[in-house]
Input
Amino acid sequence: MKKWWHGKVAYQIYPKSFYDTNGDGIGDLQGIIAKLDYLKELGINLIWISPIYKSPFVDQGYDISDYYGIAPEFGTMEDFDELLAEAKKRGIQIVMDLVVNHCSDQHEWFQKALADPEGEYADYFYFREGKDGNPPSNYRSYFGGSCWEPVPGTNKYYFHAFAKEQPDLNWENPKLKQEIYNMINWWLERGVAGFRIDAIINIKKDVSFPNLEPDGPDGLAGYHRAVEQTHGVGSLLEDLKNNTFAKHDAFTVGEVFNMHEEELPEFIGEDGHFSTIFDFSAHCLSEGEHGWYDAPGITFEEWRDAIVNSQLEVQEIGFKANIIENHDEPRGVSRFLPEYARNAAGTKMLGTVSVLLRGVPFLYQGQEIGMQNCEWGGSEEWDDISTKDQYQTARNAGVPEEEAFKACAEMSRDNARTPMQWSGGENAGFTKGTPWMKVNPNYSEINVESQQGDADSVLHYYQELIALRKSEEYKEVFTYGWFAPVYGDQEKIMAFYRYLDGEAKKPEKRVLVAANFGEGPMELPLEYKVKETLLSNLPQNHVGERLVLEGCGVMVLECME
Output
């Protein structure tokens, strides 16, 4: 069944780092409004904005103290309403971040729970008695340390899967659930198009909180293991959908890790819990057993296999959301491309593969100009709570300081959070004040202003790429077309067909996307004659009897039968 969001291209904004209009060094809602024409020209239909709610910003807004209020750092509710209206004029819809696994410890609910640990608000959270002077169980939080924090003046503890300032909400409590549903419907009635849903798999708990076999020298066990062993989240998600999203035909994209494989149809099938979920298959390749310090490098073959397998697995079920980076990941160009490919050609190549996969393409701010990981001068430059924890974890494991720093510098979430590079001027044109975070030193080479004036730039290429995906002639094949990998036996080649229904051998339309991730040129035999070259990132690429791709070359070709 066709949905209104099919064929849309989405763009994620990390508001704190996007564009500052009042000179306080922090991006704001007026900054997003000021750049709507830029996003329209890029070809964006949906904007997902990372949290803008009131927050103490312990975890950059993912610790919400008031779900109905805009953080003054970003502006006012009037600014938000203006954003909705101005975006609508340009055919753009706004997707909010929904963070309902936990809230901030400054939230009114939690403050009331602390004031009366036996009262009704305590049951909005997980308050549990300690065991023999120890926490109720041995879980390690995602940000390090115990998942349990003492409740002052009692022998109880409260549970937090993330930071201690982010107490988990008790989804077994009907009253709490209703509060959440009311809030979601309030935003949908205000005019938001839907939500990106944060860490949602965590809402289902085994509320007996049994100990697990320790997996680290601290005697704790990673909480993700408890999540993997817990079943039944589907009934909570279905209840959530039916009481909120389904009533408004909202677009929803889930941040889902640790899902049981067989549950994919329940999550994003025809009548799934969500419209789509992010495809993290490539990002999971660099998960270390103990942390970032022992994270393996990603080979091209592993990356290609992960993408291909994910595409084949999902295409008979629904749509995934395709990303190369987001606010929680380092920059894709620095992560998935070898050093020789971290240039304009390689950036265009990686973007082409991602945007033309089957699914919903999500760009992250700065991706369209090829922003890269930052050069960090020292660990004191990091702001991210997770990076600081990973650095400490590495040092505690005996990793030398230099190695620990290097590993964290490559994987830090702060790589994606440096200010957007608008120009080669002061502070990359992000702010007239002092930026809240260091600007990547390469802003003089990589910025919007210089690329707008260069017809061969990454930015202009992304505009062409998105326009091709959404064009009248090709939007059907790129939205609903099947995915079929090809040239899998060729070294450093990532290639696939997108074709419309009809038999696989005789479809209505067939498009070949072929990319050479190698350093030197490659010749490939053509299975079908080429009708037209739709896109090419390098003048040296050419097609005749055979397809010739320069190193870091990509071509998009319509084939004849």
Summary: The radius of gyration is 24 Å. The CA atoms of residues 376 and 409 lie 7 Å apart. The first helix runs from residue 29 to 34.
